[in-house]
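Protein fold
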Amino acid sequence: MATTKAPDAGRRSDRSRRAIHDAALALVTEQGYRRTTIEGIAARAGVGKQTIYRWWPSKAAVLMDAFLDLAGRTAEDAGGAPQPASAASSGGSAPGLPDTGDLAADLKTVLRATVDELNNPVLEAVTRALTAEGIVDAKLGAEFVQQLLDPQLALYVTRLRAAQEAGHVRAEVDPRIALELLIGPLMHRWLLRTLPLTHAYADEVVDYAIGGLTPRA
């Protein structure tokens, strides 16, 4: 008599988690963060509300996890493109910024990747939702910074310190302030939609910033 194979609980859990992630991202894109609820996510995902609460303590935690997963999958689909500044990779496995010895070229590569991510319609709506809600919700804002931004900002600090050690950046420059000269203009243009966010603009931002960071004759 043939034996009946037991259901793969791990595979079923993975399917449920992916369904919940997809439902959360879809709802936030369609109706915004505030109108998205745990009940709505559960209904869209086809799972019980208790299933969500077993894995996540809040709506914010669901969305944060879903965004991290999406960002990781997007990076994989892009063939391991340089990590942008606006989103952390899943599991904190970002390899670091490129270091070819040419600081300007390396920063342009990374900022162009940032432009591509911010302009990616798959990521843009949920990134805007998290950013906007984080401004009025201090707790969510802190989670957004801790989980999504800080790991990426640390990569800039590491690269700029390496440039300092190589003599390509002045020793007195604070890397944490310097990275804001690079990322801040892109985020300002993206958030406020003042002008198009392009590779050419990213290159100019690097050129302007590098002029203030490199050793003076």
Summary: The CA atoms of residues 163 and 169 lie 6 Å apart. Confidence is low (pLDDT under 50) at residues 85-94.
